[in-house]
Amino acid sequence: MKFFIDTANLDQIKEAQELGILDGVTTNPSLMAKEGITGRDNIINHYKAICEIVDGDVSAEVIATDFEGIVKEGEELAALHSQIVVKVPMIKDGVKAIKYFSDKGIKTNCTLVFSVGQALLAAKAGATYVSPFIGRLDDISTDGLNLINDIRLVYDNYAFETQILAASVRHTMHVIDCARIGADVMTGPLSSIVGLLKHPLTDIGLEKFLADYRKGN
Ligand code: G3P
């Protein structure tokens, strides 16, 4: 299972990278705005800075919503760095653009996916990743993990190569449940990754080992 971090915060990206378990980064316009990154040039430079920190795929989202605009913006983003994956919304022109990018060998991440039908279309268009938003489904009393399960079933039925990127992950249990189901990738905040480290018996056990060592030394 690949671990992506879902942030545009460079310190948090560095911390996850230094842990040695990071496979990539996802961003979106809201995450950029949260870090105060505004204006096209600053956003472009920020993507480049992220690519310098991590070794894996970095999703960069298009703002255009028409086919020509998505293609133009996506090609510019893809040309920035070999690690850039063009993030395209699940809309009609987005699906057309994903097919276009796929035919040209440009990696894509189909975002804002909330149903199996949408995931099926993304795979048919040749998306590299599909991003079902599990936390936002949970927010409206709909089980987000069920969607991951259903997409896994459908993709396995036809051996689609599109990778299921569980997005809008909010906490450690989302990560663990996605791993149980067999999501290919999860993207979440730093807390959902480092939270996996924690167990009180580990802390108690370590304290005891160190105390016993100190007794004899
Ligand atoms: O990757 C999608 C993600 O950024 C959305 O997360 O927590 O805003 O629903 P959230």
Describe what you observe in this structure:
Helix 6 packs parallel to helix 8 (144-158) and helix 8 (144-158) packs parallel to helix 9. The protein has 217 residues and is an alpha/beta fold. It has an 8-stranded parallel beta barrel with strand order 1-2-3-4-5-6-7-8, surrounded by 7 helices. The chain is globular, with a radius of gyration of 19 Å. Helix content is 55%, strand content 17%. The chain starts with a strand and ends with a helix. Bound molecules: SN-glycerol-3-phosphate. SN-glycerol-3-phosphate binds next to helix 7.
Largest sheet data: 8 strands, parallel, barrel
List the bound ligands. Answer: SN-glycerol-3-phosphate
Write down the overall mean pLDDT: 98
Shape category:
globular
**Helix residue percentage:** 40-55%
Oligomer: single chain
Strand content is 15-25%
Class by SSE composition: alpha/beta
Main sheet strand line-up: 1-2-3-4-5-6-7-8
Per DSSP E runs of 2 or more residues, the count of β-strands stands at 8
Order of H and E elements:
EHEHHEHEHEHEHHEHEHH
Number of helices: 11
Write the layout of secondary structure elements.
Blueprint: E1 2-6, H1 10-19, E2 24-26, H2 29-34, H3 40-53, E3 57-61, H4 67-80, E4 84-89, H5 92-103, E5 108-113, H6 116-125, E6 129-132, H7 134-139, H8 144-158, E7 163-166, H9 172-181, E8 185-188, H10 190-194, H11 200-216
Helix pairs in contact: 4-5, 5-6, 6-8, 8-9
Bound molecules: SN-glycerol-3-phosphate.
Residues 6, 26, 28, 131, 133, 135-136, 167-168, 170, 187 line the site of SN-glycerol-3-phosphate.
